[in-house]
Amino acid sequence: MYFHPSPSPSPDMSSQLWQSAAAVLDTNWARGHMVPSRRLYPHQWSWDAAFIAVGLAYVNPQRAWADLRNLFGAQWPDGRVPHIVFDPAVAEGDYFPGPGFWDVPAYADRPAHGSTGLVQPPMHAVAAWEVYRRATGHGAAAVAAARDELGWLYPRLCAQQEYLTGARDAGGRGLVSIVHPWESGLDNSPSWDAAMAAVPADLSLLQRYARRDVQVADITHRPTDTDYARYIGLVQSYRAGGYDDAGLAAWHGFVVECPAFNAIVAAADHALARIAEVVGADPAPHRERARRVTAAVVAHLWEPASRTFRSRDVRTGELSGRRCVNGLVPLMLPGLPREHVVAIMAEAESERFGMPSLSGLPIPSYDRTAADFDSYRYWRGPIWININWLLRRGMLLHGYEAQADELRTAMLRLIHRSGHYEYFHPATGEGIGEPAFSWTAALALDLLADRTAPVPAAARA
């Protein structure tokens, strides 16, 4: 039975949710950075930091900037921003794979405690712009401080974009390639199944390296042992290659172009164009690169037969056969042709994804009608707030205000009813995974503070 929310959040509900979300962010602040959760994710994650900054902008903008600074303090000389920055106060055995396993090269200008060699979607320019935008309502001093933060971040954000659109264009089509499912942020999505099938699954690795995640989380909710063995093998392959991106498709086992990752790359350049105007740089190159990436997404990741965006395996040239939520994320692109916008909305409103008008809940991570749809296993069915937040932005951008409001209401009522969980059951709304998850709380604050709805008093302070 589906959970059907009432039409709109009440003032009492909004106040309660605001207070609980702010409390989660306060609890999860640790030694100068935010952790996604205290138990399962004790370090700093890259795209989590971006979503979290959006919410921190309302309750503690100084922490929003500090969190982004901590992340970009670990940026590699080639411009990559690692997907995890390790906290030296956390023991190696408390998280796997930890810094010892990654064994990244040491550089004088990077923290001694290290990072991973992978990346995640570059949401940080969007986040930085949102934090700056909130400062504009708090006086000249707040604006000046935020402008200084943008000035520090801007060259680092540019270096991140140049790395991704340069060294990571493994297919030579103007698209960024990911080299591990973890880089997508949608770790075990069915979108990667075909490409991952060609990666050897050495289960003996799990005898050498114990999975930490299943010691603290339900194993039936997490990626399978076969998937995890492949994940470890891919890290070993990339590490053995010195984390070098040259000729990736020829030597590395997983090289994939993801529509969501690339849509976020283009969105980052749109945000950088706005940031450039604030810090006195030229916005034109950012707008042009966003245009090129958008055009490449349409040209190479669109499947006309199904009228959906799909991931592409660079090694084989084949598009994924699965309808996954990453195919909806290009909706956030302002330059997306109208026919593609209409097609994405048709997919979102179909029985496969079931906008709240059909299901009473936000959009799930995978096609509800698929035979292997799994209501509990990570990105193979459950609802994630961050992806729905991105989709709502796209709906507003392209004039689907009613659907955006419907999605906002469904997200807020779901979080209020079930808690600030990592993800949610796609039929009942039950909270799954970590119960005090930072980006869920942070994005709840942003949704509550939406200018089209009553703003809690705490947001105006």
UniProtKB/TrEMBL annotation:
Pfam families named among the record's database cross-references: MGH1-like_GH (PF22422)
Gene3D superfamilies: 1.50.10.10
Any single GO BP term: oligosaccharide metabolic process
InterPro entries xref list: 6-hairpin_glycosidase_sf, 6hp_glycosidase-like_sf, Glycoside_hydrolase_63, MGH1-like_GH
Keyword Cytoplasm: no
UniProt-recorded Gene Ontology molecular function terms: Glc3Man9GlcNAc2 oligosaccharide glucosidase activity
Domain annotation Mannosylglycerate hydrolase MGH1-like glycoside hydrolase: ranges: 41-440
Annotated keywords: Glycosidase, Hydrolase
Membrane found in the keyword field: no
Family in the record: Belongs to the glycosyl hydrolase 63 family.
Annotated protein name in UniProt: Mannosylglycerate hydrolase MGH1-like glycoside hydrolase domain-containing protein
